[in-house]
Each structure stands twice: as C-alpha cells, then as structure tokens.
Amino acid sequence: MDAFLIDGELQGIEPVDVACLADIAKLLGQDTVISDEIDARDAVYFDEDCFIRGTSGRFRVDNLAPIAGRAIVVGNARGEELSNVSLSLDELKGRVAFL
User: Fold this and answer.
1) Cα torsion through 21, 22, 23, 25, rounded to 10
2) Residue 66, in any domain of the structure
3) 11-43, pLDDT tens digit by residue?
C-alpha cells in the first residue's frame, strides 16, 4: 500500500510501501506500534513508547499530540485493515509541523 514515512529527526516526509503492520513496525524500528486517526480515511502509526525512549525529532500532525522519531501515515478505511493513503504528499506536508 502507498504510505508516507515522517522522520522527525530529518524533518522530512517520503513515500514508502507497506503491506501490513509488520512492515510499519520494521520502518519505525520498534515493536510497540499504535495508531491515531487523522481523518476518516487515514491514520498515523507510531512507536507507543517514543517519549519514554527519549527519541528526539518531534512533530505534530494536525492537532494530535506530538510524536517523537518516526511515523507512518497510511489509509485505514476499515479499522486495522490498511489501504492506500488518501492524502497527497503536499497535503500531508501542510498538516505536519516539525517542533
């Protein structure tokens, strides 16, 4: 599936391909992955313990709580079932603030 990787340390966003939650965990480099909906079609997946680990590179998507490190934005039209992200790269860039 089409997705985007947000890297807080590099302050960048790049397209990536994921097929399942295991792919997301691998890209994040962590096993404790949780998600938060950013709209009716897409969600942001990130390391549940990102602040406990002391990870730097914080950013915020819309008005959600800040995230540290890396995150994946991918579609989730049916709960945990992944789908292609509905946002374009430019749309997502407009919704991400690096802190």
Assistant:
1) 90
2) yes
3) 999 999 999 999 999 999 988 899 999 999 999
